Each structure stands twice: as C-alpha cells, then as structure tokens.
C-alpha cells in the first residue's frame, strides 16, 4: 500500500491519480470514501465531515494500491508513506482559489508551516518520505516522486521562516 498524505491543497488527489496511472495501480480517495460510507462518518464540523479513524483503518485493511487523504497521517497502516509539502505562501495561493473561509485557509497554512502532518506521520509510520512540490508542476512532482520511491530518499523541509515574516 502507498499512502499519500499532507495538508489540504498540497496536491494529494492530483498526484495520487497521476501515480495510479504511472504504476497502473488502483487509487482510493479518502474524501470520496467517507462521503459514500456512513459508517466512516463521525458527524460534521462546518461543511467538512469528521472521520471515524478506527473504521477507516478497518476499511483500508488489506488494500493493495494507492490511498490518499489528509487524515491518513492520523492512523497507522502497513504502507510506504509520502507526505506532500508546499511552501506556506504557495499553499495559501492554491487555497485562495477555493471557496474556503479565511479562517479555514489560515488554519491549513499554519498547519503546513508547523509540520502538523509530518509530526503525525512520524508518530504513526515507520517508512515515509517528504515531497516538496513548491514551484513544481504536477508532471515534475510525479517525476521526482518516481525517483524518490526507489530508495525512499525524500526532501528535507523547513518552513520556520514563515513565522519570522
Ligand atoms: N506540483 C503539484 N503537484 C500537485 N498538485 C499541484 C502541483 N502544483 C499545483 N497543484 C495544484 O494544487 C491544487 C490542489 O491539488 P489537490 O486538489 O490535488 O490537493 P489535495 O491535497 O488533494 O487537497 P484536499 O486535501 O483538499 O483534497 C490543484 O489545483 C493542483 O492542480
Ligand atoms: Mg484531495
């Protein structure tokens, strides 16, 4: 199993689809799965559905393919993990194009700047790499990822200067 996780807007859905094509592997999108299956839902927070993490873990047991979602950093699965990263300023530009509230955009940009998903991934998984997509096209990101997956050697990321500005 390959898990793609990261802050909303880092490109998980786009990259998972591209990787699925490249490897001819099935792709699961956690957002779609949760919308479809009531048993995975734990209520709502604003317009987003809260996920029952234990049920999601059960649902994914034995899946042999690529699965993507930001909540995947919160659970432990037997998988190789890719944590997608995007420079906070660039992530803000991407999220500004969505119909998100200012608060939701700010929360996500700060989560990225504080390495939230990386920290959770370290708690839950043994093998992971980070892929920094800042300034890269989707094709360039896919190329880098294919190269990185060979030896699980990823990017190092440091967004600490975001809070200095
Ligand atoms: N290098 C890149 N890799 C992936 N996506 C990119 C890249 N550059 C720009 N994008 C763009 O970033 C936007 C967000 O991508 P996407 O919807 O795949 O993110 P996501 O991580 O799945 O977000 P969410 O968690 O909200 O579902 C898209 O418009 C995508 O085209
Ligand atoms: Mg997505």
Description:
The relative contact order is 0.20. The protein has helices spanning 12-23, 30-36, 53-60, 88-96, 102-113, 116-124, 138-151, and strands at 2-6, 27-29, 41-45, 48-51, 66-68, 80-85, 128-132. Helix 1 packs across helix 7 and helix 4 packs antiparallel against helix 5 (102-113). The strands form 2 sheets. Strands 2-5-1-6-7 form a 5-stranded parallel sheet, sandwiched between helices. A two-stranded antiparallel sheet has the order 3-4. With 165 residues, the protein is α/β, with parallel strands linked by helices. It has one domain (2-152): P-loop containing nucleotide triphosphate hydrolases (Rossmann fold). The protein binds adenosine-5'-triphosphate (ATP) and magnesium ion. Adenosine-5'-triphosphate binds at residues 6, 8-15, 31, 70, 94, 133, 136-138, 141.
Could you provide a short overview of the structure?
With 165 residues, this protein is α/β, with parallel strands linked by helices. The protein is 43% helix and 19% strand. The chain has helices at residues 12-23, 30-36, 53-60, 88-96, 102-113, 116-124, 138-151, and strands at 2-6, 27-29, 41-45, 48-51, 66-68, 80-85, 128-132.
Topology:
Elements: E1 2-6, H1 12-23, E2 27-29, H2 30-36, E3 41-45, E4 48-51, H3 53-60, E5 66-68, E6 80-85, H4 88-96, H5 102-113, H6 116-124, E7 128-132, H7 138-151
Parallel strand pairs: 1-5, 1-6, 2-5, 6-7
Antiparallel strand pairs: 3-4
Helix pairs in contact: 1-7, 4-5
The site of magnesium ion has 3 residues, from helix 1.
């Amino acid at each position: 199993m390959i898990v793609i996780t990261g802050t909303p807007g880092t490109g998980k859905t786009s990259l998972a689809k591209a990787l699925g094509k490249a490897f001819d592997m099935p792709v699961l999108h956690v957002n779609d799965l949760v919308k479809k299956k009531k048993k995975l839902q734990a209520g709502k927070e604003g317009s987003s559905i809260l996920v029952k993490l234990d049920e999601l873990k059960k649902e994914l047991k034995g899946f042999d393919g690529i699965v993507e979602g930001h909540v995947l950093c919160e659970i432990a699965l037997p998988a190789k993990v890719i944590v997608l990263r995007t420079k906070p300023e660039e992530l803000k530009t991407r999220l500004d194009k969505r119909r998100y509230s200012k608060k939701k955009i700010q929360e996500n940009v700060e989560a990225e700047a504080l390495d939230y998903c990386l920290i959770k991934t370290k708690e839950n998984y043994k093998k992971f790499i980070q892929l920094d997509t800042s300034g890269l096209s989707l094709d360039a990101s896919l190329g880098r990822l294919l190269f990185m997956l060979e030896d699980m050697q990823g990017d190092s990321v440091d967004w600490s200067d975001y809070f200095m500005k």
